[in-house]
């Protein structure tokens, strides 16, 4: 089988369990074999869950972050560009592309907000800067919390605001997980916008503590 046929075969199978060249087991979902130094690209539409060996059939939001981190480290080891520098023409460039893809996948799946935004995007409901909430009570509460943070001169008050806000973040993350499982995308988007606002409060509180420490 020619190299081009091998690569096409790999792409048709999406994720290979064995190296298409030497047939040794692959240790990750990345088509990079450090036994025979075969490396190939991946289909442009491959999901980040599939790339990092995470199940997404039941609920793509409910992931094992320990497994995510472990799979990420192993994937980066096999496609680190430095390891492919002397392995043949174009292989380091391909390794660099794969490494960047793996890193982006990890960043998008690690944090709940980025993960929810990615899942919405994959299902045809991308977030945009124009997305707004009609819940003026919620918006008022967010504005009040931001104002309290801005005017606070007591670290105890800042800590109290953060603790209350973290409880709200935990609740909305649970809600997003339930809504994604139900595939209620309009409600998922609304809940994700709420999470974005709450994350803004957390960042503001953290910044205030850093500035006054």
UniProtKB/TrEMBL annotation:
Keywords: Chaperone
Annotated PROSITE patterns: DNAJ_2
Any one of the GO CC terms: mitochondrion
Pfam family, any one: HSCB_C
Biological-process GO terms, alphabetical: [2Fe-2S] cluster assembly; protein complex oligomerization
One Gene Ontology MF term: ATPase activator activity
UniProt entry tagged with the keyword Transmembrane: no
Residue intervals of the J domain: 47-122
InterPro entries, alphabetized: DnaJ_domain (IPR001623), HscB (IPR004640), HscB_C_sf (IPR036386), HscB_oligo_C (IPR009073), J_dom_sf (IPR036869)
Keyword Chaperone part of the UniProt annotation: yes
NCBIfam families given in the database record: hscB
Assigned protein family: Belongs to the HscB family.
Name by which UniProt lists this protein: J domain-containing protein
């Amino acid at each position: 089988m020619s190299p081009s046929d091998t690569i096409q075969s790999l792409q048709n199978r999406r994720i290979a369990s064995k190296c298409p060249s030497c047939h040794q087991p692959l240790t990750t979902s990345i088509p990079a074999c450090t036994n025979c130094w075969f490396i190939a690209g991946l289909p442009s539409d491959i999901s980040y869950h599939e790339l990092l060996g995470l199940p997404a059939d039941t609920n793509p939001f409910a992931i094992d972050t320990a497994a995510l981190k472990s799979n990420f480290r192993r994937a980066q080891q096999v496609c680190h560009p430095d390891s492919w520098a002397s392995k043949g023409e174009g292989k380091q460039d391909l390794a660099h592309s794969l490494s960047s893809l793996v890193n982006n996948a990890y960043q998008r799946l690690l944090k709940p907000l980025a993960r929810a935004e990615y899942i919405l995007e994959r299902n045809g409901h991308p977030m945009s800067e124009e997305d707004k909430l009609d819940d003026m009570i919620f918006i008022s509460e967010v504005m009040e919390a931001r104002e309290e943070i801005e005017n606070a001169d007591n670290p105890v008050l800042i800590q109290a605001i953060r603790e209350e806000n973290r409880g709200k973040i935990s609740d909305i993350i649970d809600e997003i997980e339930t809504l994604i499982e139900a595939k209620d995308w309009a409600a998922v988007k609304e809940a994700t916008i709420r999470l974005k606002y709450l994350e803004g409060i957390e960042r503001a509180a953290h910044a205030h503590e850093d500035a006054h420490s």
